[in-house]
Amino acid sequence: MRDKHKQALSKKKYKDGIRRMIVNYFGGRCRQCDFSDIRALQVDHIHGGGSKERKAEFKNERKLLMDILKNEGKYQLLCANCNWIKRV
Is the pLDDT of residue 70 over 60? Predict the structure, then answer.
């Protein structure tokens, strides 16, 4: 039981580290409103299709990070509010 808890914490720490790298890559701020609280920042697919792509390809953050680095101009960082407004 203890090992499972330790593994879960290690996995969360790894995922959080990848997330920080992604957020830092985009400057750590919402592209629209300059909001900077990492808890509400989201990677947005500029031309849509993110949920389909996420289900098909990006089951982990490392793959997403690699795609972001390869495809400049495909993604942007938005806060949850701006991302929702764009979606609607």
Answer: yes
